[in-house]
Each structure stands twice: as C-alpha cells, then as structure tokens.
C-alpha cells in the first residue's frame, strides 16, 4: 500500500482508508437537527467551543440542546462572494419533520450580525419567538444545499482533497441548475478518513471517498444508482445498522426510493460485540398509496485497518466491515 506524502511527510488518513478498502457505509450523522451558519475561515478545530470563532450567544443554545440530550449537528459554511451579503449572516436550520420522512425540513434566514444570537435562541430554544424574524426568512425550500467538508484544521485530508471537489462542483454545477443548487465549503461533520466527503441537504445523504467522475451521477441522478454504491456513507435519518441495510434497499428500488418516507428500527442485535443486527425499514409514499417494509440481517464480513487522523506516522486501527446477508421485502 502506498499513499501520497506532502513535503512534511504526511500520510493522509483518507488515502489509507481507500487503499485498504474501508467501506464508508454507516458513517452518516444521525442527527435530529442541523444548525448551519456562515462563518469566515479559517475555522479552529474546536470551533463549537471557541467563542473567538462563534459568538457565545450562539454557542449557549447549542449547549442547552446537548445538555438536555438533544441531537444537533452544528456546521459552519464559508461565505461565498455570490451567495453572501455583507453585514448579514445566513442561517440554515434543518430538522426531522416526523418519524417517517424523506427529507429534512428546511428554514433559512439572513439576519444582521447583531441578531444572530437571538435568532439562534429562537430556533433552538424558544420557537415561539420565530415570528419576530419573519422579515429575514428566505423562501428557499426549493434550493438544494451541498456542503463539502474543507475543515483542514481538524484533518488536513479534508482541505487537501475536499477543496478540489468543492471547486469542481461550484464552478461546473451551480450555474447549470437554474439557481436551485448551491455548494458550500463547510466545517467538520465526522469521517475525515472518507475525504473528500459531503452532505446533501435537505435529503440528508452523506458521501465519501469521492472522485470527480462520479459527481455527475451524484448531483444529477442521471444514471445507474448502483454506481454510487462505494461512495455512499448513508442516510442521516437512520442509525448505523439501519444505514447499512438502507443502501441495499436503495440499490434495489432505484431513484424513486429517495421520494419515499422512511423509518428504521433495530429489531435485535449483538449488543456486546456488534457482530450482527436484524433491521427493519418501513416506507410509504407521500400519498400513502404504497406502504411496505424490508427486513434485513446485517453481519460482520471481516475487518480492515484504517487511520482516524492524518500524520507522519498515523496510528492504524482495525475496523469491522459489514454486509447485508439477508434482505426480504415484506408483503
């Protein structure tokens, strides 16, 4: 196995992961909410505990949610010369709309910098105050937001490999989609060993180990779903074992699967060694005319060595690899 090295003799974790055949499936964030704000780069690695990067009155409501056991993924996006507005901050907020859903529910605001903290408080703690921000709300539910991790201060692989992919997407795909698609450089959302990696919202799908030649299919959905298989990290509406099962179902159902409202549950599992799990994925069309479910057995098929962090001599860790050994559509 050989991996590229920079002048400081760095071995990139994502190249080690790819060279050893690590499957990215099951690594999507299973968050109930996303709180995304424009913030200038560079971002420190501890951006969400650093008031020098993010105002304290934004961090406080995030800490409130975490302190009460809530699940939220905050992200910073770099301001864009075309998208952004001097003196204002864009806030994108997504949440699960129901137990069964196909896409996260989107809310977008562009507020004066001075109101950022009070908007964060309204979104995350006091939703009854949101009408006060009606004048700043943006009607952009039709716009798809694709966020590419470029957080080099967390791991250099994300900037080394993330920026070229972002640049290609931003320059070649944004203008060609009738302003219904925006691309952003964003902070870390986990899985830098899968760099270049992105999250596609409001769908909530995560992708990794990306290559330029796969972007057309990922963005435009203009070919065979199965060609996306090795790049899919999973859907953020499901947990680890459920994500592994969902990929196999999607490969069978095709593109229409993305429109179905879905929910997953782990029926039984090896809670000690995580060797297997029995999973059920229920789905329905928005109008309820089609309603069914799949049941799957997910099992360990082996292991590979990966690196959690880039460096001159990265520590290699053994990680289990899984497969779906049984998949049955219930009638």
Q: Can you characterise this structure?
A:
- By secondary structure, this protein is α+β, with helices and mostly antiparallel strands.
- It has two domains: 24-237, Glutaredoxin (3-Layer(aba) Sandwich), CATH 3.40.30.10; 240-331, no CATH class.
- 20% of the residues lie in helices and 31% in strands.
- It contains six helices and 14 strands.
- The model is unreliable at 1-8 (pLDDT under 50).
CATH-assigned homologous superfamily of the largest domain: Glutaredoxin
Return residue spans where pLDDT drops below 50 for at least 5 consecutive residues: 1-8
Return the CATH topology of the largest domain: Glutaredoxin
Q: What Rg is obtained from the alpha carbons, in whole angstroms?
A: 20 Å
| Secondary-structure element order, N to C | HEHEEEHEEHEEEHEHEEEE
Sheet-strand content, in percent, reads 25-35%
Q: Would you report the number of β strands? A: 14
Instruction: Describe the main β-sheet briefly.
Output: 5 strands, mixed
Quickly give the CATH architecture of the largest domain. Answer: 3-Layer(aba) Sandwich
Number of structural domains: 2
- List the total number of helices: 6
Content-based structural category: alpha+beta
Which key terms come to mind for this protein?
5-stranded mixed sheet, single chain, alpha+beta, 6 helices, Glutaredoxin
List the helices and strands and how they pair.
Blueprint: H1 13-19, E1 33-38, H2 56-67, E2 72-77, E3 88-95, E4 105-112, H3 116-124, E5 137-138, E6 144-149, H4 156-172, E7 181-186, E8 198-201, E9 205-207, H5 215-220, E10 232-235, H6 240-253, E11 261-269, E12 276-284, E13 291-307, E14 316-330
Parallel strand pairs: 1-2, 6-7
Antiparallel strand pairs: 1-3, 3-4, 4-5, 6-8, 8-9, 9-10, 11-12, 12-13, 13-14
Helix pairs in contact: 2-3
